[in-house]
């Protein structure tokens, strides 16, 4: 009976690749089932059959072959059963005899902790017992010396089994919970759901919840040894058995190595007495690679701790030899050197490094000085992925505990990939190859919705952070009320954080020490360059080392693996294989088979057996030759050894200055603040304008030219004549800044800088500035003119359709620059950009607003339509308008508006109803479609419904309370929107909004920040626009005096104030939050009839 069940399980669990390679064992079905093929197309190519065809062709397949295989029945009887099936047979047999009573009576003989139960552990213990018996049998055949209790205490051995049990739980708990939810009365599920939604769930709903249904469920499953369960979830049966087999293999290997090396370990440690037995083992401290192997931390009776790593540790040895050599040569401060025994396929780390506090302030300063030194060394070595889990703050010593991604080679990007987009220019490549590449410096990553920013860098991740996703938490474990909840949690501070007097230290308080350490080490390495380059022993040892290559982030693999372990993918091997094949999307960015294509096969093979894929190369090779069936020759730009030599040989003062600038910028981005909602209880002090002289048009132009010259002085040029700048990119959803090369947008990218430079050229008739403006657009134009449609589509998807940050902003900028420079080629580029706004891209827009969504896309498209009269352009704008009509919501019985970046509709121009209503009114003016007018009216009515008469302002609803007085949020932006549409829509209420908004704007006209988005020049533009639209000379004078006052202050403090908490000397050239926008506004004050109001997308 078991044999028949196993045959059925094996047939169902067979993966897609196995079926495709065993066509002879398939029986064709009379009926064709295209559901699986359609699912595959959706997963891999989002329903694009042409893309799927490429994916199949590159593997030597075609749709008809695949359709036949997917519809056929696999005959497992015709072949010997695989090894995992034999293990599964033993699990079924053991489970059928398993008695729960023996567990409760002898808990010390099982890897369970009554005070810390694992979900469904009673069901999974038989699999652990199978692993135990197979391990004992295997080791006894080898030698009695290898038996676990000869080397380990009983507690330590049970910790190994506990690790196995935890892995089995991770695999199966969701599926078991799904079955348990169907087994117990439905009232339990309804109650849990209700309480979860009400946030009433604690560890259990009652102090002593019932276990009746849980026990019945366990006994029901065990009755047939889980055979029926595995027939239903065949893939899960395979994965459980495979995990047991891998655990057996890795554990036996560890015990044999420990026995063989123990005397050697005692000798290396100069032990006067024996190390004794292993008394504690901590596992799962690394990812699983190479058939489930991972790092173990072991403690002996003597108290000695060692780290066992089942991989070649040659690179760690050479790295620590380099640290020791630097110490010998007189490094500014001594590094901590770790002793290692490398046994080629595995090794032992003797110094178990633990977090320790700094003894005093001087020690804390030395810690950060050493951190700067370490950063320099890792920069020269080409280190990568040095995140907080690989870094320990051990007193005054920063210690890198995993060096496998030192000398990380740089691959040639796949055409059309994200990497290719990010490395479009030499400037971007150099930036990504800077100190930032090490992973030590602060850098924001974002949750999928962009709302949460988090930092996993070794030096930046020092505070508790909001986890970017809800984390699973089991409640009421192994009771009738058991369920899985997903909770918002804070990421705990890790061992990378230096402590002083039990207080975590902030790296920004020690930035100068980091910079000093980096500079000292840079000069030290420069001084000893020849010593290192002529040390043949070191160089030969370095060349011989294998180095790991991270093809993609481990987190990507983890997320995909987790999703593939949901119940619906554990019934049939093909369905899970299809889910894993989402990895192939990375390669389908071009119609040409990429050189990296063989990597996919290796990734899928590893993921099928729950391994994290592992790739690598030799330090002196440019071929990817570890982790693949056949090496990929010339896959890397150069060998990592040559990269190291090149960096060491090219140490120079210019590079030192550049790297220190990037270090400072990364730490500034970590703490830079945006203006918060003003409570309006402290309007700015009455500024005395009696001594403030209005600047003439010539003076305003001269001030703008100074800004243009500063921007030019800070530009970066590459050998292809691309021009770019390094600045602070803003992520509005998370309200964070990223230090990076400028992107392409109007808001904080090259389009904004080019728009200002083109305006300078327009008013000065200078070809110098027009040439610089065009050069700033060169890399963008390369993207727009690419013949690779897939690349262009990915680029568009990456930046979105918005009017400030997306394709809409590029269209608007190119049209305006073409007008300023009389360059029709730029108008043609704007038309190419408009083609990227597809119905699919519009449908994917969830932001909706002017900054990043359909509202802004309308403004960009209408600007192009007014210039060209092309109906296809107008059709795209109409499509965006329909998208906005379909996404209105009503909250608390208020008029309908739009949810953009918050949980409720916002007010204001940038992300709120004012900006979207303005865009719809502009669309109505062209189309005369009443639906747009009515939607705009309702959006304006929504803002009126939340208006505060007490503060004469509209609240910033992103927060619980508060008001802002800026273009982006609050009265100034709302006044602009109303003024901009006066020729289309005007009522008494509109004029009242304008009057009240202008009063509030003037009351808070001058604040600390100067830029357009959140600062003084944004308010100045509102006053200037109002003076134009309302024919009010008094407002014009106020705008001019405010501008003169801000310019005078900038002269006095040597720079415009761009951020509240950063130095004025900081350069940020962007348009909305930098100096380009300030320069443009100065020119607009000088020539208001010549230059349009960009803040209105005029």
Q: What do these coordinates show?
A:
By secondary structure, the protein is of the alpha+beta class. Helix content is 51%, strand content 8%. The protein has 43 helices and 25 strands. The radius of gyration is 32 Å and the shape is globular. Mean pLDDT is 90; it is low at 200-205.
Question: What is the compact description of this entry?
Answer:
The chain is α+β, with helices and mostly antiparallel strands.
Largest sheet: 5 strands, antiparallel
Radius of gyration from CA coordinates = 32 Å
Shape: globular
Are there runs of 5+ residues with pLDDT below 50, and where?
200-205
Structural class designation: alpha+beta
- Terminal CA distance: 78 Å
Strand order of the main beta sheet, please? 3-4-5-7-6
Number of strands: 25
Percent of residues in β-strands: 5-15%
Helical amount among residues, as a percent range? 40-55%
Please state the average pLDDT score. 90
Q: Could you list some keywords that capture this structure?
A:
1098 residues, alpha+beta, 5-stranded antiparallel β-sheet, 43 helices, 8% strand
List the helices and strands and how they pair.
Layout: H1 2-13, H2 16-21, E1 26-27, H3 35-45, H4 49-57, H5 63-71, E2 73-74, H6 83-97, H7 100-105, H8 121-142, H9 148-151, H10 154-183, H11 186-197, H12 212-223, H13 227-232, H14 234-268, E3 278-282, E4 296-300, E5 305-309, H15 314-328, E6 340-342, E7 347-349, H16 361-381, E8 391-394, E9 397-400, H17 418-422, H18 426-432, E10 445-446, E11 453-454, E12 465-466, E13 471-475, E14 483-487, E15 490-491, E16 499-500, E17 503-504, H19 511-527, H20 529-533, H21 536-543, E18 546-549, H22 554-564, H23 573-580, H24 597-608, E19 615-618, H25 640-649, H26 653-671, H27 697-713, E20 716-717, E21 723-724, E22 726-731, E23 736-741, H28 750-764, H29 767-776, H30 778-784, H31 789-799, H32 807-821, H33 824-835, H34 839-844, H35 854-868, H36 871-886, E24 888-889, E25 897-898, H37 913-927, H38 930-946, H39 971-980, H40 988-1003, H41 1016-1030, H42 1033-1053, H43 1075-1086
Antiparallel strand pairs: 1-2, 3-4, 4-5, 5-7, 6-7, 8-9, 10-11, 12-15, 13-14, 16-17, 18-19, 20-21, 22-23, 24-25
């Amino acid at each position: 009976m078991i044999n028949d069940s196993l045959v059925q399980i094996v047939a169902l669990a067979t993966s897609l690749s196995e079926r495709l390679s065993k066509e002879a064992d398939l029986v064709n079905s009379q009926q064709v089932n295209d559901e699986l093929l359609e699912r595959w197309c959706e997963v891999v190519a989002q329903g694009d059959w042409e893309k799927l065809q490429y994916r199949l062709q590159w593997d030597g397949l075609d749709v008809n072959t695949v359709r036949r295989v997917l519809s056929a029945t696999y005959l497992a009887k015709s072949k010997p059963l695989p090894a995992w099936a034999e293990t599964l047979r033993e699990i079924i047999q053991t489970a059928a005899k398993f008695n729960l009573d023996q567990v409760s009576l002898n808990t010390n003989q099982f890897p369970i902790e009554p005070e810390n139960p694992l979900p469904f552990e009673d069901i999974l213990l038989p699999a652990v017992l199978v692993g135990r018996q197979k391990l004992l049998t295997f080791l006894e055949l080898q030698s009695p010396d290898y038996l676990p209790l000869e080397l380990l205490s009983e507690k330590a051995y049970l910790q190994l089994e506990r690790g196995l049990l935890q892995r089995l739980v991770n695999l199966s708990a969701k599926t078991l919970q799904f079955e348990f939810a169907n087994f117990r009365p439905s009232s339990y599920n309804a109650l849990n759901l209700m309480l979860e939604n009400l946030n009433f769930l604690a560890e259990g709903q009652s102090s002593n919840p019932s276990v009746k249904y849980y026990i019945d469920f366990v006994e029901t499953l065990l009755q047939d040894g889980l055979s029926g369960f595995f027939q239903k979830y065949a893939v899960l049966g395979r994965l459980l058995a495979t995990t047991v087999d891998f655990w057996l293999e890795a554990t036996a290997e560890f015990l044999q190595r420990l026995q063989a090396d123990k005397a050697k370990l005692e000798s290396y440690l100069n032990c006067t007495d024996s190390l004794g037995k292993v008394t504690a083992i901590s596992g799962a401290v690394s990812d699983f690679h190479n058939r489930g192997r991972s790092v173990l931390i072991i403690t002996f009776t003597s108290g000695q701790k060692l780290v066992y790593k089942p991989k070649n540790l040659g690179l760690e040895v050479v790295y620590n030899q380099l640290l020791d050599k630097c110490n010998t040569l007189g490094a500014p401060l001594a590094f901590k050197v770790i002793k290692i025994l490398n046994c080629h396929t595995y090794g032992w780390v003797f110094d178990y490094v633990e977090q320790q506090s700094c003894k005093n302030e001087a020690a804390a300063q030395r810690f950060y000085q050493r951190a700067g030194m370490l950063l320099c060394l890792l920069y020269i070595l080409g280190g990568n992925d040095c995140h907080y889990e690989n870094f320990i703050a051990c007193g005054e010593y920063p210690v890198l505990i995993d060096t496998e991604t030192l000398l990380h080679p740089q691959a040639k990007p796949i055409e059309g990939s994200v990497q290719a987009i990010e490395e479009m220019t030499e400037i971007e490549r150099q930036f990504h190859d800077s100190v930032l590449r090490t992973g030590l410096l602060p850098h924001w990553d974002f949750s999928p919705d962009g709302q949460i920013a988090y930092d996993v860098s070794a030096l930046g991740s020092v505070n508790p952070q909001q986890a970017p996703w809800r984390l699973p938490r089991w409640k009421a474990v192994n009771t009738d009320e058991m369920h899985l909840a997903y909770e918002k949690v804070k990421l705990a501070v890790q061992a990378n954080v230096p402590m002083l007097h039990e207080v975590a230290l902030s790296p920004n308080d020690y930035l100068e020490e980091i910079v000093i350490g980096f500079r000292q080490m840079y000069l030290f390495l420069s001084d000893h360059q020849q010593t290192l380059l002529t040390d043949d022993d070191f160089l030969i040892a370095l060349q011989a080392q294998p180095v790991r290559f991270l093809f993609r982030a481990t987190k990507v693999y983890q997320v995909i693996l987790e999703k593939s372990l949901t119940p619906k993918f554990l019934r049939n091997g093909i369905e899970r294989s299809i889910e894993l094949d989402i990895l192939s999307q990375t390669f389908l960015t071009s119609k040409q088979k990429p050189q990296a294509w063989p990597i996919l096969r290796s990734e899928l093979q590893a993921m099928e057996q729950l391994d994290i894929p592992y790739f690598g190369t030799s330090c002196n090779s440019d071929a990817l030759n570890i982790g693949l069936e056949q090496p990929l020759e010339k896959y890397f730009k150069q060998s990592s050894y040559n990269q190291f030599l090149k960096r060491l040989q090219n140490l120079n003062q210019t590079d030192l200055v550049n790297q220190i600038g990037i270090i400072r910028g990364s730490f500034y981005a970590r703490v830079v603040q945006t203006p918060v909602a003003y409570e309006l209880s402290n309007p700015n002090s009455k500024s005395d304008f009696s001594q403030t002289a209005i600047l003439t048009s010539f003076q305003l132009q001269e001030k703008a030219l100074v800004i243009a010259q500063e921007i030019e002085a800070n530009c970066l040029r590459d050998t292809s004549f691309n021009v770019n700048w390094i600045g602070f990119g803003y992520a509005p959803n998370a309200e964070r800044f990223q230090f990076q090369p400028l992107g392409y947008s109007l808001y904080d990218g090259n389009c904004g800088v080019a728009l200002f430079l083109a305006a300078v050229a327009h008013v000065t008739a200078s070809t110098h500035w027009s040439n610089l403006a065009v050069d700033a657009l060169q890399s963008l134009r390369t993207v727009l003119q690419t013949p690779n449609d897939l690349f262009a589509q990915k680029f568009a998807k990456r930046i979105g359709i918005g009017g400030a940050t997306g394709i809409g902003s590029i269209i608007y900028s190119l049209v305006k620059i073409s007008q300023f420079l009389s360059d029709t080629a730029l108008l043609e580029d704007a038309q190419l950009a408009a083609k990227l706004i597809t119905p699919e891209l519009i449908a994917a827009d969830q932001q909706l607003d002017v900054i990043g969504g359909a509202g802004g896309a309308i403004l960009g498209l209408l600007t192009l339509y007014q210039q060209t009269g092309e109906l296809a352009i107008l059709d795209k704008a109409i499509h965006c308008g329909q998208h906005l009509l379909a996404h209105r919501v009503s909250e608390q019985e208020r008029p309908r508006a739009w949810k953009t970046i918050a949980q409720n509709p916002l007010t204001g121009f940038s992300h709120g109803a004012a900006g979207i209503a303005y865009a719809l009114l502009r669309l109505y003016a062209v189309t005369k479609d009443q639906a747009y007018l009515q939607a705009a009216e309702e959006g304006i009515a929504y803002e009126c419904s939340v208006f505060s008469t007490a503060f004469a302002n509209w609240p910033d609803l992103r927060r619980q309370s508060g008001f802002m007085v800026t273009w982006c949020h609050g009265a100034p932006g709302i006044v602009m929107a109303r003024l901009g549409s006066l020729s289309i829509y005007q009522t008494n209420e509109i004029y009242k909004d304008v009057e009240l908004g202008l009063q509030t704007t003037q009351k808070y006209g001058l604040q600390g920040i100067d830029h357009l988005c959140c600062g003084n020049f944004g308010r100045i533009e509102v006053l200037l626009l109002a003076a134009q639209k309302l024919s009010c000379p008094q407002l014009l004078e106020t705008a001019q005096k405010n501008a003169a006052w801000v310019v005078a202050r900038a002269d006095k403090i040597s720079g415009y104030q761009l951020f509240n908490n950063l130095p004025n000397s900081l350069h940020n050239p962007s348009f909305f939050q930098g100096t380009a926008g300030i320069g443009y506004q100065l020119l607009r004050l000088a020539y208001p009839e010549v230059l349009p109001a960009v803040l209105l997308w005029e």
